[in-house]
Amino acid sequence: MWLISFPKLTNNIDKMASPTEIRKGRAILFQGSPHMVLEMQHRTQGRQAGFVQTTLRNLQSGTTTTTKFRSTDNVDFLHTTTQKLEYSYKDTDGFHFMDLETYEDTVLTTEMIGDDEIFLVEGNNYDILLVDDQAVRLELPSAVEATVIEAPDALRGDTAGNVLKPVTISSGITVQVPLFIKKDDVIKISTEDRSYLGRV
């Protein structure tokens, strides 16, 4: 088992480049820590040199920051890969994911997982983002499947096509679903807004 640390990031730079190469979803070294580019926009100020306005997420602490990169700045891009691991359990160290081939245990901290914890189901496989072979972030798909563990019966008279009812899924959160959904059904949920997408 190991926890994330980046003692040699400066020795593992994928490449140093111009800010014009910054793209959403890329990882860069910023103020000594790995950051993910969440948003970016190219801007100009009259006759002055242009710059890139970015929103970055610190992959160690989970905090976000907004910063500008001038066209004359150098940006250190980090090498990233994605690995599919099975979610095992949570304890005081964090969230444990297992490589089903090597049985290696990888731990992501609470800061790395954040609000995405509600989409974690033990035994399901998830994509984990790695920077220099060290896990830094859970990469959720646009939708996940979950089992309904509690579902109230539809009330007689609730016949309108758009009437919804609250059900509880395996992660413990409540989702608004159509009346025909019942306990033990497997449903698909959007990871962006937690909305019901359909029955599996």
User: Largest beta sheet, briefly?
Assistant: 6 strands, antiparallel
How are the strands of the biggest sheet laid out side by side? 1-6-2-3-4-5
The portion of residues assigned to helices is under 10%
Mind telling me which CATH architecture of the largest domain this is? Roll
Strand content: over 45%
**Cα distance spanning the termini:** 35 Å
Order of helices and strands: EEEEEEEEEHEEEEEEE
- SS class: mainly beta
Query: Number of helical runs?
Result: 1
Strand element count: 16
What would a concise description of this structure say?
The chain has two domains: 140 residues, Roll (SH3 type barrels), CATH 2.30.30.30; 57 residues, Nucleic acid-binding proteins (OB fold (Dihydrolipoamide Acetyltransferase, E2P)), CATH 2.40.50.140.
List the helices and strands and how they pair.
Elements (H helix, E strand, L loop, with lengths): L12 E5 L9 E4 L2 E13 L2 E11 L5 E7 L4 E4 L1 E12 L2 E5 L6 E4 L1 H4 L11 E7 L2 E6 L3 E8 L13 E6 L4 E5 L7 E5 L5 E4 L1
Antiparallel strand pairs: 1-6, 2-3, 2-6, 3-4, 4-5, 7-8, 7-10, 8-9, 10-11, 12-13, 12-15, 13-14, 15-16
